Amino acid sequence: MMDYLNLARQLLGWYDCRRRELPWRTETDPYRIWVSEVMLQQTRVEAVIPYYHNFLRRFPDMRSLAEATPEELLSAWQGLGYYSRARNLQQGVREVLAHYGGNLPDSRDEIGALSGIGPYTAGAILSIAYNKAEPAVDGNVLRVFSRLLHIEELVERAPVRRRIEAVVREMMAGTPRCGDITQALMELGALVCIPRNPRCGECPWQGVCIASQRSDQALLPRRKAAEPPRKVAVFTGILLQGGRALAVRRPDRGLLAGMWEFPSVETLDSPAATLDAADLLCARFRELGQEVSVQAEWHSLTHVFSHRQWQMKTFRCRRRNPTGCDPAGDGHWLDREQIASMNWAGPHRKIAAWVRSELEQEMREKGL
Ligand code: SF4
Question: Taking the model in full, what pTM does it have?
């Protein structure tokens, strides 16, 4: 049986000497801590810092975020990925304004019922903003404790998580620094007890860590084998007209919601699918009021999301309907400046750069 109070003391001692100075570390405003926690999900600290500053400059309080348009929200988040986090954050903020007068609640039940706040984020906000003895257990913390306590079960299992949460609660119970325990665990997982080659020589728990004593840290944590990302063939059509390109905004729900893309069709990957590209793209352009012929393949690229892999082929297209090119449905003609300023969905940003240079070349050829 480990001495949890001593574990807490050792951890906090290490944290006080070794922690990084991060902008949210000095924050006491629950809204700002909430923003940082949402941004840090599945994203590296270094990548988050500039977004965090910029986001809070644009939306310094809940009211300003609640009133932001989808375009404003997207532009503050673009490049950080997993845009649904931003939409959920905004929805959660609106709920706090509507039901709690703008004060983020400090009970697990109430905060956990808000949009976009799962058990980890609830624990992080409650411990850091309100100094409550509420654990925040994410993949990093699971890794640290699976090694410290030598847990050989799959860490995704609920009893394992509950056991680790109970240990963190015990550690918090013996100190007035609950928020620092949460941050110190995150820091330990990020800097020392890292997935490969943990730096046990720098760890405050080396003397008591069972995995370190047995030298089998590399075997822990045990996880279910990850499913490989599902391959999806994506055909994208590029239609240029009078110095502009046709583009559409993706639906408000689902992957890359609300972001811009060039007209595309997704199909399950199969050899036959490539043969269908022209038919599929012609049908997609018809929905946008354009009769086109599909030219030879232009560029190809691959983009990997967490659960799917887009294998993209882009095709230049030519208009066949000679008169009237007003787009129908959700299509829009964008000029070079607009293309440069739009929030492009993942790999479409790269395609947008290609399209811009194509339009520039066209202008040069016409002597414009
Ligand atoms: Fe992780 Fe090594 Fe520390 Fe154990 S001693 S918790 S394996 S860094």
Answer: 0.76
Nearest Cα neighbor of 288 from 315, 261, 258, 269 is 261
Residue 235: phi, psi to the nearest 5?
-105, 130
Alpha-carbon Rg for the chain in angstroms: 25
For helices 178-191 and 158-173, what crossing angle results, to 10°?
A: 130
**Ligand 1 centroid vs 47 CA: distance in angstroms?**
26
19 C-alpha to ligand 1 centroid (Å): 17
Which is catalytic among the residues 27, 37, 165, 261? 37
Please choose, from the candidates 246, 266, 268, 270, the residue with its C-alpha nearest in 3D space to the C-alpha of residue 254: 266
pLDDT digits (tens, 9 = 90+) for 71-81: 899 889 988 88
pLDDT tens profile 101-120: 999 999 999 999 999 999 99
Q: Which residues line ligand 1 (CB under 6 A)?
A: 144, 147-148, 192-193, 198, 200, 203, 205-206, 209, 211-212, 217
pLDDT in tens, 143-194: 999 999 999 999 999 999 999 999 999 999 989 999 999 999 999 999 999 9
How sure is the predictor about 367, in pLDDT bands with cuts at 50, 70 and 90?
confident
| Burial call 107-129: b when 16+ CB within 10 Å, e when fewer | ebeebbebebbebbbbbbbbbbb
Q: How many CA atoms lie within 13 A of 122 on its CB side?
A: 17
Ligand 1 atom nearest residue 204's Cα: 3
Structure tokens belonging to residue 210: 């069972």
Closest CA relative to residue 172, chosen from 131, 125, 137, 139: 131
What letter does residue 107 receive in the DSSP assignment? S
- Catalytic site residue 37? yes
Reduced to 3 states (helix: H, G, I; strand: E, B; else coil), residue 317 is strand
Residue 251 burial (CB < 10 Å; 0-12/13-18/19+)? exposed
